[in-house]
Amino acid sequence: MVNESKKTMKKGYAPEEVEAKWYAYWEQNKLFAASEQSGQKPFSIVIPPPNVTGVLHMGHSLNITLQDILCRYRRLRGDNVLWMPGTDHAGIATQNVVEKNLALQDTSRHQIGRRKFVEAVWDWRRKYGDAIINQLKSLGASCDWDRERFTMDEGLSRAVRKVFVELYEAGLIYRGNYIINWCPRCQTALAELEVEHEEENGHIYYVHYPLTEAGDGPIVATTRPETMLGDTAVAVHPEDDRFRHLHGRSVVLPLTEREIPVITDSYVDISFGTGALKITPAHDPNDFEIGKIHELPSVRVIGEDGCMTEAAGEKYRGLDRFECRRVVVQDLKDNGLLQKIEDYRHSVGHCYRCQTLVEPNLSKQWFVKTRPLAEQAVKAVENSETKIVPEKWRNDYFKWMEDIRDWCISRQIWWGHPIPAWTCADCGKLIVSFEDPKTCPACGSGQLEQDPDVLDTWFSSALWPFSTMGWPDQTRLLETFYPTSVLVTGFDILFFWVARMMMMGCHFMDEVPFRDVYVHALVRDENGKKMSKSSGNVIDPMVIIEKYGTDALRFTLSAFAAQGRDIKLSEKRIEGYRNFINKLWNAARLTLMHVTQAPGGIDLSTSGLADRWMLSRLKTVANRVAEAIDGYHFNIAANEIYQFVWHEFCDWYLEAAKPALYGKWGEGRQQAALKVSWRVLHDTLILLHPFIPFVTEEIWHLLPGTEGSIMKAVYPSDAAGFDQLPNDPAAEADMALLMEVINGIRNIRGEMNIPPASNLDALVQTDSARHQSLIKNNKALVSNLARLDSLSIEPAGEKPKATATAIVDDLVISVYLKGVIDFARETQRLEKEIAKLDKEIQALLKKLENDDFLSKAPADVIEKARSQYDEYVEKQEKLVNNLDKIKSISEYQ
RNA sequence: GGGCGGAUAGCUCAGGUGGGAGAGCGGCGGCCUUACAAGCCGUAGGUCACAGGUUCGAGCCCUGUUCCGCCUACCA
Question: Which bases on strand B have an atom closer than 7 Å to a protein beta carbon?
């Protein structure tokens, strides 16, 4: 049905009444659905899956808004768009949440056992897993929800298994005993990336290690005295003369009875500390390496719970690692072995999930051999199969890939993808297999035990671009939409996620996972601080949405999303853009007061200058907005259209068109104004829809001549007849001149303190025939916007007395001041203007008097400077002329 | 230790390839003008961090300095 005059609009836009309605409408009408097969150009994005435990924060809001802009924009441009949504199972985080719940019920995962625990997690996920998804929906996210995926889904789990087995068979996954980062609270290994380093105030302890025989032993410096219980050597540099006498000798490890050797290794830095380094292979990655080279034993003195082990000795066994440090230090003091303690600032690793101090610990884990995978992933970016935007992130990507270390992928938790590896209890054979094995292929035993560990969540996230599309099956979806068009993400997970997807995509699909990676900024608070619960500076998007509406939030984020710069957000800014939404609403309200049925095509024969100007501007803006989005310049697109809607359409066009709309200028002009305002509103809504989907959909349905959802509209640049829109530089120039004339008169009104209500008489003097007719033809327009009773046009000549003056180009504008003109005020006004011009003129003169400039600068630049100079001088002369007149008149008074 | 980014109006920020700086908010003055006071009209604010250099010409290019961020690193 084509809408006739629909209904009257409220005075102010009320988002809360509108948003839920349209979201439901879009979903019900399947407007977000991608077709697996279509003749349209495919465009695809996979969502960065939020944690199931997650709560929507501003980072998500920005991320989702930008993706939604791209998806809605591409749909409007006629593409077949797939936005693949889903969540990830967030192994450690989710397990933590469920464990906390169990603790509230006075039980624990160990008490209820693994099977029941995993069931409890699934229960939790069924109950609460949709929370973040619903929040994404309230942001307006136009994901294809029927395809929603979860990293623990059957299909994705199959992909994980297949990848694990194939990498293992290719020698790219191995298991081994290495130093890893252990979180004693989460009770699991962490990958290097999952450790956050922070500078902390600590101490450095100087400990005397006595020789077994007579003579002075070395002083060893350490920040972690409790680990000395696990020392298996002291190392010195082979060239260090201070310690030559120690080569080949042994020391007694204080607080224990153990003898440990003094070894030499050039790893030791002679200039640091005392030059003697204690070696603890089980609790320090470097010491581990040195231990391997020198075939030293490893003594694990700290256990998985962060408490000292049996090996730490009777006295220390069972002590918490921090408590143990205090005891060890005290004991060293008591034995006279502690030489001194110094303050020391050093960086310490913390678990990225729970902030607990991580403990480097020796442990048997699974690793991905990343180097070969990284090589392909680097190549793909080098030759631009994948483009990273903004480009500066390329270097970070390359650097990280070049320094990449093997990736520890096993986690000692229960919630996650089980590792498809079994050990034969009888012969010890390790079996890695896609299908669960029944018997040992080596000895035929049926006693097989599956590895109890699960895989790092990021291991499954790394497969997201293809696992969500059905891989390992060769689906139509994959065929249509892989590689995806663009990945939109924050730089904080460039390595965690993007780099790993690149590795897995290149390896398993022989094709990059995405053509573009758009890396956006972080959202910070108004002081530039990272928003965090602990600092209490979090702006909750849901609260903002409730208060200002989703569109306001989205438009704010877009308008501030300049490439490569963080967004500092404050409510004040959101309020400003809420006002913009309301402005748009009211522009529609005014338009729809007059446009009550769909006007036909645009007929320029009865149009006015403002009409032609507006259409010309519309065309330019539509192209610019599209161009900006294509280049991921969301802020430019948003600002371009903001400026256009508010300061051109509303401030100038609608104001100029009012008399025409009210029929004061006759049928023809009225028709033209109706058509143009309809057209501008119509096209503007489409341009704005990707940014502010709700209000645009609402107005769309109120706009006569539209049918169905705005999501089905054709983008202005693609619409039939777009090319016919006038690109009219003459109209733009003429309109610009008239605007200046109007501004000149308004300035007089403002500066001379003339009440807006009183209408004025004005005279324009010029010898230019073109300008004379321009003013004549647009007398009504100027009079209306400048609030004039009369406007007369004359050739240049004597300026009337008792008038205030404005100069525009060659036009001398005189405003008759009823009653007594305030000469002092007008003098002041003119002097100010003259002084301003003087500055410009001096600057130009300096240039034009410079021979170097005249001989070396390009001709067009010189020409521009000359004409500008002439213009300013002429204008100034006229102003001076008028100033003189004012002065002479005022003297007679 | 290495790397990257930033410093522009009171505040927050824009300023493709160098031709004399813009917006929003805030300030000030005036308006309830029949779409909007979440508004309208007018207006004032800047040696573009500092010091050099290249150039006829630098916010933009080069060098150095200062002050902030961020990333990264195994110096005990």
Answer: 3-6, 12-15, 19-20, 23-25, 29-33, 35-44, 55-57, 69-76
